[in-house]
Amino acid sequence: MSTPAPYLSIGAVERETGLSKDVLRKWEGRYGFPRPLRDEFGERIYPPDQVNRLRLIKRLMDTGMRPSSIVAREEADLLALAGNRHVSTPAAQDGSIETTALDLLRRHDPEGLRQALHRLLLRQGLAAFVQDSLTPLNHAVGEAWSRGEIEIYEEHLYTEAVQGVLRNALAGLNDRHGRPRVLLTTLPEEPHGLGILMVAALLALEGAYCLSLGPQTPLEEVANAARAQAVDVVVLSFSIIYPPRRIPPALAELRQRLEAGVEIWAGGAATARLSRAPAGTRLLPTMEDALAALAEWRRSHDART
Amino acid sequence: MSTPAPYLSIGAVERETGLSKDVLRKWEGRYGFPRPLRDEFGERIYPPDQVNRLRLIKRLMDTGMRPSSIVAREEADLLALAGNRHVSTPAAQDGSIETTALDLLRRHDPEGLRQALHRLLLRQGLAAFVQDSLTPLNHAVGEAWSRGEIEIYEEHLYTEAVQGVLRNALAGLNDRHGRPRVLLTTLPEEPHGLGILMVAALLALEGAYCLSLGPQTPLEEVANAARAQAVDVVVLSFSIIYPPRRIPPALAELRQRLEAGVEIWAGGAATARLSRAPAGTRLLPTMEDALAALAEWRRSHDART
DNA sequence: GGGTTGTATTGTCTAGGACAAATAGGTTGA
DNA sequence: TCAACCTATTTGTCCTAGACAATACAACCC
């Protein structure tokens, strides 16, 4: 009956935060944080507040900060940093979808959120909904989280609501004989599948045939699928949590495994931090870029001019 | 232009197979496999065939085999083992949904698969569809994979198709004022969300209000969500890939974080390998158990008898 | 059968060190 | 002014080898 101390082992912290055991041990020596206690066997055990701080640090690192400048900082400092980095986003005016949606989330009304999104979709049309509402909304939710204004589970509820609405819209939209044939997925380290759904919606709306593999497909399997399904384009999505340095080699390897005629497009927040695309691939940091890429594909593949 | 050798580093193998670096190094010493080459810096590099064999081994371990009995075995042996373990499944007769669906997958017709599933849903009704078609179909797909008859990406296509059909059916079904209020999700190590969708469909059909958080919610957040949404039941799903030994402690901790009135149900293939449920929780190895649990909850919560 | 004990197996953790790869900052040249 | 190069520092990943708790299995007794 005694409460099992909520201290976590190093392995559990790795799972919770996404920081590898090696990194956790190194930081301890280099920056003096985390500073886990030891159990009776001399093994590290991390108190919950340190785990939370680690989560916050991870989040800040995902936005481009470096360990040396944040790992040793106090929690209050970190929260201030998190709050200061939304300056670039245009401030959301009252009554906008951002504030409405965040409100519904905080008032614990997922069903209401779903309805609000659906109404908005019908009012704006799918393309505008994805580009003008969902994109800023995603940012707003992410930032609200990093400022501690909403909980992780509320982010999950949001994702589910959006996914439900989008899948519904997409259901009747996909034309099996549409062109180009587009394969969409993410690589194994990227669990976030909202991006490919949004792109799929935009492209299908323009008459492309979108084949989604869902998230987390091994690179080799992406190539197999592309071959078997004879697709014209492969779209990969990399969210902000994906380590940017792993993107170019991954794209290069995929490029090598695919025939030259098959295009490779990489989208998502992490691609915005890349200076340039690896040879034979194309970056789509924003949704507009996806439509531009589609238009360009059409121009160069139209037999008649 | 030189082809970057497709050898993988130990970290890459960890990501691809789900076997930790520690385990990979230990197996090397204990069982003589894997036997990676070394690059110019003395670091392990794994050839693709060894990675494939590791994937196969992982799959067999997920079904209950132990390392000492399989890690050192030849690939042919392993494939034979994989092929022999579907004896318990009643053989699928020709023309059944199993053979039809697998056929469509192998013929690379995801759109056809989706239609077939949708037709089946309409013909059988949602409950029978989930219990009598989807459940055996999931098994069949999993086993076909482990026998090497279908590729991973085909499994992904299957999952997407099922998810599309189920979400569609679920869209209009959920009654915000239904009872009990049920929260569904998986823990962070469990990416497989099909199970919660299937359960949600069954329960919503019976008039429950199903709140899905999607997959991979941290335990603490599950508790937060349950409190904020005032749910009556929390359902967690553990697929075959989830290490069974981690289930009881996780359930126990959740039990501790939730009020006594909130029930905890654990479903999925991994729960079938548990001898008994931790105190204050309930195991649902099959879909029927979910319905039984719902009926029981209703019986004990009905004011009048 | 059902529970208890002992034994073997297996995964996780420890330590400190080496070093490649990524990044920042300064310098040079167009 | 901007781009391209260089160098120094930072940072993550990998190495070895061993200790040991937790788990699973087998044998035993009731």
Description:
The structure is a homodimer of 305-residue chains. Chain A has 305 residues and is of the alpha/beta class. Chain A has 3 domains: 8-84, Multidrug-efflux Transporter Regulator, Chain: A, Domain 2, CATH 1.10.1660; 97-171, Methyltransferase, Methionine Synthase (B12-binding Domains), Chain A, domain 1 (Orthogonal Bundle); 181-301, Rossmann fold, CATH 3.40.50. Helix content of chain A is 53%, strand content 10%. Chain A has 13 helices and 8 strands. In chain A, the strands form 2 sheets. In chain A, strands 5-4-6-7-8 form a 5-stranded parallel β-sheet, sandwiched between helices. In chain A, strands 1-3-2 form a 3-stranded antiparallel β-sheet. In chain A, helix 12 links the parallel strand 6 and strand 7 (263-267). In chain A, helix 7 crosses helix 9, helix 10 (194-205) crosses helix 13 (287-301) and helix 11 runs parallel beside helix 12. The longest helix of chain A is centred in the middle third of the chain and has 21 residues, at 126-146. Chain A starts with 7 loop residues before the first strand and ends with a helix. The model of chain A has no long low-confidence stretch (mean pLDDT 87). The interface between A and B is large, with 46 and 46 residues. The first copy, chain A, binds a DNA duplex (30 and 30 nucleotides) through helix 2.
